[in-house]
Design goal:
154 residues, alpha+beta, seven-stranded antiparallel sheet, 3 helices
Length: 154
């Protein structure tokens, strides 16, 4: 069973500034500071192939997962990661991919950006009920803190 969810938010900073945060490992620093127990770089330097271990605070439902940066397109401002160990894979998922896209806001004459998070997932048929575990909530919280960071450093 395949599914996807997405959300987008506006941030009042130039697209290049938004991409500098959302397109890099710096976003992990924001997550580690506000919503995670810890974040460890297992291998890599933030480019394609980088693997990070994300450890969640107790009570989060998922203790940890390792995610791999599978695509970074600086020209189109798109980054994708996939879980390669733990997390949703332990609940019968065969794919859990997060895509982050940053683009100019076409509806704003001032300087602002649109940041879009998309989750794509595939879950084994025998674990199809676990698809209800997928939610945008953690990413909405992350976008809130990331956007506050961008605005305070504008």
């Amino acid at each position: 069973m395949f599914g996807s969810l997405s959300e987008e938010v506006e941030v009042k900073v130039p697209v290049e500034k938004a991409w500098d945060l959302y397109g890099s490992i710096k976003l992990g620093d924001i997550a580690a500071k506000h919503i995670l127990e810890r974040l460890d770089v297992i291998e890599g330097d933030g480019g394609v192939g980088t693997v990070i271990k994300i450890t969640f605070k107790p009570g989060s439902g998922i203790s940890y997962y390792n995610e791999k940066y599978t695509m970074i397109d600086n020209d189109n401002m798109v980054r994708e990661t996939e879980i390669v160990e733990g997390g949703y894979l332990d609940f019968g998922f065969t794919l859990y991919r997060v895509r982050i896209e940053v683009k100019d806001n076409p509806n704003d004459k001032t300087v602002s950006s649109i940041v879009k998070f998309t989750i794509e997932y595939e879950v084994k048929e025998e674990a199809a009920d676990n698809a209800s575990l997928v939610t945008m909530e953690p990413f909405l919280v992350l976008m809130k803190f990331a956007n506050e960071h961008l605005l305070s450093s504008a």
